[in-house]
Amino acid sequence: MVSKKKKKYSSGEGAQFMTRKAALKKLQLSLKDFRRICILKGIYPREPRNRKRAQKGAGGIKTLYHTKDIKFLLHEPIIWKLRDLKVFQQKIRKARATRQFGQMRKYLRDYPSINIDHIVKERYPTFVDALRDLDDCLTLCFLFSTFPSIKKVPRDQSLLCRRLSVEFMHAVIAAKALRKVFISIKGYYYQAEFEGQTITWIVPHHFSFQPQSKDEVDFKIMSTFVEFYTMMLGFVNFKLFHSLNLVYPPQLTAGFTPETDKDLVDEHAYVAERIAALNISVAKIAGSNEVEELPEIDIFQTEDGDPQKLEEAKLEVEKVKNLKTMFKGLKFFLNREVPREPLVFIIRCFGGEVSWDKDHFVGATFDESDESIAYQIVDRPSMDKQYLSRYYVQPQWVFDSVNARTLLPINKYLMGAVLPPHLSPFVDKIKDQVYMPPEERALKDPNFKPLDDEPSGSDIEEASDEDAEEKEEDSSEEDDEKALTRQYQQEVAEDSTSEDEDVKDDLDPEKKKLAKEKKKAMAVSTGVTHKENPYQKEIEDKQAFRLREKLVRKKHRNLYKSMKAGQEQRKKEIWLLRKKRRLHDEKVKEEKKAEKRKQKMQALEATS
Amino acid sequence: MPPYKTGLLKRKISENTNKTEDNSSNSSCDDHNLITGDLDKEEDSSDSDNEDGVVPSDTELDGVVFDSGDSLLSDDAANESLEESSDVSDSEEDEASDGSNEESDSDKSESNTEGTNANTAKSKLKPDNEDSGAESGSGSALRPPRSPRSSRHNTNKKPFKKKEFKQTKTVADKNANSSVDALEQKIKEVQVNIQPVQEKDEYESGDTSDEEGRVNTAGEVPRWWYAEYDHVGYDADGRRIARPPHADRIDDFLRKCEAPDFWRTVRDPSTGQEIILSKKDLELISRIREGRVPNAEHDEYQPWVEWFSGEVLQTPLRAFPEHKRSFLPSRDEQRHVARLVHALRMGWAKTRRQLADERRRNKELKFYDLWGSGAQEEQPRALQRHIPAPRRPPPSHAESYNPPPEYLLDDKEMKEWNSLEETPWRRKYTFLPTQHSCLRAVPAYPRFLRERFLRCLDLYLAPRAIKMRLTIRPEELVPQLPAPRDLQPFPTDEVLQFRGHTGLVRSADFDPAGQYVVSGGDDATVRIWEAGTGRCLRTIELGEPVRLVEWTPACPVTQRAVRVYDLVKQELVRKLLAGAQWLSALALHPAGDNLLLASYDRKCIWFDLELSSRPYQTLRLHAGAVRSVAFHRRYPLFASAGDDRHVVVCHGSVYNDLLQNPLLVPLKQLRAPPPRDQLSVLQVRWHPAQPWLLAACADGTLRLYA
């Protein structure tokens, strides 16, 4: 008997993957429904190891899904819901076509909603999983909370987003979980930490919604994402509130229920209420204590524990603790030109009290004339009426202070001052080959002196070093050898001259004369000790390495080359940034000097 | 029956005849059908009844007729219809055959006669009809008044079918032509036979309320249906109304002149009769034309009498007393209400408001503790091999609203930025770093929505794969070899130059003792030098340029491969494939089992003969062609030199242990003189005892490295 021939692609990678078309056929869904269910269930295409085989020999590039993923979808009860919805939509269409509007309204009223609780649980089996994936969720919810009503987005979605985002902010405030903030040109970045997971989200600047062309942005897709994210954020909020012993849902204002929605037409009124809601503390569960401070962390000496690392960790904990109570007991007043939402959120997060002009916006807690106000945040060049009892600072001070984890000196941030650069706290400090602006260095290392104070700072030296290195790289080995020897010779020469100078300094002129005479008289000169070139070893090592480099295995040669090229590029970028900075600083200095000179001249002219 | 229908029937009949021919051929089968037909007939008759009952108008009747026609087409249906007929008109068929002669006569007479004659024809036919038997008569009488027409259809069909059938039974042996002719005759007879049934008078009993004028009962049918016929319809008795004689204009004119009432004579379009309008009619017409109420007696403005008012009258307006249910509450309603109230109380039923509230409550999202308090068992259902989406990279300093000045683009970078407008993905940043003096000046980022949308697309549309990220540094890819410092001695520097040759030095070699050096070159001289001092001891003038000088003979080398011969057995032992294009030189390790080849394509190839005939290692240490390689006889050193500016000294130690592979460590790059005519070093030779290296250079010098 002849054994049956095995069909091609019935096992292995060919059987593992499924094109989208095949998936649609298998699930008996339209593309629209498939897209929706993929978004809700978090199914995504996979990149096969061998595309040709995975596509069963078909050419081109196709969207491939794991067959198991599609089979997983097949068991989803929501698929039936989607099919039911289709029937329902047909009914509505029919009622409309036959002009049975009463019936149609009834259908619309009873439009079935899809319950996706189980999907949230399925996608995030634990709370920590959900927290880990909260970045996109928060960013999209915060974005949608600023949306007006649009065609493709359900009417109550933006309202729901608004409610949930405010609730989340309250949770962050209550937990004092905010860690980093950053004003970018795209929006405000926030980073909070819950249960050891960092959550980063962006809140856009005002007026972020602009009408988009159809092929640029498809709101329907985003809305489907939001549909899932709102569910997820709701459950996360619930859990957070409960873990913080707060009542959920918090009774913030009446402004978030859809009933009163129709009365509130003004966009500003909305925004104002939302911020006002941020400024009230949420109700605690009766009988619960204050969230007690974390106890001192005992740090155990582990075998592999680096003592330095432990020390660092300890320091970090201390810093975070400081950060949490940074604004405690301080009263802030926001001028009306200051964007209130981020500032209220940040200040409340770190224990401060905030208020604003009650004539302009609702929710003010104290007046501008309050003498106990410590800081007034202003964003204008000057003000007529100023109180002596408080500091007038620009909003960047708050952000920079949070990132520095201490109250920074305000002298650079006073009203009307030219602000220092605002740095991102998110830059990875562990990675090597990262450019660090001098301001950041100054922050990290208090001994570091920025360029402004000392022109011949280490920065320039470094830059020159870099330059030298660059040259070295470019030229061949011979040259760098020469350069090094030259350097060495110079050093030797310097040494000798300095010695001479020392001698000069020490001896009196008479003695010098004597010495000279002696020199002339004596034919034997003092021998110069052979000083070994300190770079000799380096040069040798470098040469040896260069030779060894040629023995990199053929398999790794390209990888090695590309890695090297990457290194070189990063190096170059850093060099470029340094150079630009140096040029800029020099220019600024020149300008300053010129101005000073001018002032002097003017003063002289005035006196004469 | 309207004539168009008979036309239709004719067509069907002709179709049917063909079938009956077929039937005649297999008569036994027909017999069987007849038997079954008898069994089924009750059903069929009931069907026909139904048809009659349902049919409301002529047009619908048409449909029915067509249906039956369709059914006639199929054999079974035909049989059924035959059976159908069998019950009703067993007696009829006899009569039809009897009266066929008379009918043919009457048919002729009808065609000639006008409306008046029609009556006589009717009177003639009537007795026939009455004779036709009690069955059919009584059957038609029982039917509702509209039915006779349809019943006529049935009866119409039935007799002739019956006859056909009979004929097929009896005259089966006749030939086809004669049967067809006979059929045609029969059909004609049948048609004639129809008439008596059609003209049966229903109102014979004397109930004729509208006797004075003849009414056309044709109904709302288009007039042109009757355009081809002599009659225009039928009166209430079912008699034909003859078409009135056509009057031409002259006749009209003459009547106009003669008749005094011509002006009020109107022709009834349905019957074609002329009616003289009475005075009353004329009055009516004039009232209608003036837009007044047609009835002259009607008073529009008579006083209003309020018969049914709220006032309770002394005597009831209506004679009968109020019904009991008008003043007693209904028990049924009471029960109903009680049931509703009970349902409401029990919560089975809900008021409309409650329902609306409930609906609203259902629509609200309810959040609860989804994850529970503590550890639960793992859910079995989850995505397999889930790859979480990578996070977006965190913002850099350049994204700040007030970045350090070095991040802002200068003029040159700005130019580049603008030039890459078509290909924005090549730009350094996805956004343009900008500096704002204060926070209130920061505008909304125009691409924010788009970026979020793209992120969404990435999340559900971008294929994901786990990609291993290399955490190694590039230096770790470089093989770890012992440091050259530990492998001394080897020549590290140039110590001597042997000047004297005027052309290229092609070749050089030490004497076995290592005291002298012999060299030869393009200047056609062979010179012998003292190795230690570089002094030329002797110059031998030859006529031609020297290719090679050596103290010992050279090994055989081809350009592609090395063949190793066993000289004793005189056979090829092995062919070494170098994988290089052009071999230039060969050197044997003093131990014998290792071989070093140099090739013009910049490679030095180390063969371990014990290992395989493939290269053990290929060294790419040179930037140009390698022209010469040499092993040191005593130290584990070898050197290679070529067209680039370096002589490379390597450590190459071979172990006696078979399991340990040879160790190759490049040690030092010695600088050679700058190339002349793209040649630099032509040959290298080791000192037999010392780690000294001699290079024959293209610039006419010999160089000694130690």
Automatic annotation (TrEMBL), chain A:
Gene3D superfamilies, alphabetized: BRCT domain
Q: Which UniProt keywords apply?
A: Nucleus, Ribosome biogenesis, rRNA processing
MF terms (GO), sorted A to Z? ribonucleoprotein complex binding; RNA binding
Q: Which Pfam families match?
A: BRCT_2, Pescadillo_N
Q: Where is the BRCT domain?
A: 322-415
Q: Where is the composition biased (Basic and acidic residues)?
A: 439-452
Location in the cell: Nucleus, Nucleolus; Nucleus, Nucleoplasm
Biological process annotations from GO = maturation of 5.8S rRNA from tricistronic rRNA transcript (SSU-rRNA, 5.8S rRNA, LSU-rRNA); maturation of LSU-rRNA from tricistronic rRNA transcript (SSU-rRNA, 5.8S rRNA, LSU-rRNA)
**Comp. bias regions, Acidic residues:** 453-481, 492-508
- Chain segments carrying region Disordered: 439-537, 586-608
List the InterPro entries. Answer: BRCT_dom, BRCT_dom_sf, PES
Cellular component GO terms held in the UniProt record: nucleoplasm; PeBoW complex; preribosome, large subunit precursor
Q: Which protein family is it in?
A: Belongs to the pescadillo family.
> What biological function has been recorded for the protein in this entry?
Required for maturation of ribosomal RNAs and formation of the large ribosomal subunit.
Q: Specify the protein name.
A: Pescadillo homolog
What species is given as this protein's source? Papilio machaon (Old World swallowtail butterfly)
Automatic annotation (TrEMBL), chain B:
Pfam families attached to this UniProt entry: BOP1NT (PF08145), WD40 (PF00400)
Q: Where is the BOP1 N-terminal domain?
A: 226-491
Q: Where is the composition biased (Acidic residues)?
A: 40-52, 77-105, 201-210
Biased composition annotated in UniProt, kind: Polar residues: 112-122
Q: Where is the region Disordered? A: 1-215, 376-406
Q: Which domain of life is it from?
A: Eukaryota
What is its subcellular localisation? Answer: Nucleus, Nucleolus
Which keywords does UniProt give here?
Nucleus, Repeat, Ribosome biogenesis, rRNA processing, WD repeat
InterPro entries in the cross-refs: BOP1/Erb1, BOP1_N_dom, WD40/YVTN_repeat-like_dom_sf, WD40_repeat_dom_sf, WD40_rpt
Q: Does the keyword rRNA processing apply?
A: yes
Basic and acidic residues bias locations:
12-22
Skewed-composition ranges (Pro residues) = 390-406
Give any single GO term for biological process: maturation of LSU-rRNA from tricistronic rRNA transcript (SSU-rRNA, 5.8S rRNA, LSU-rRNA)
Instruction: Give start-end positions of Basic residues composition bias.
Output: 149-164
Q: What is this protein called in UniProt?
A: Ribosome biogenesis protein BOP1-like
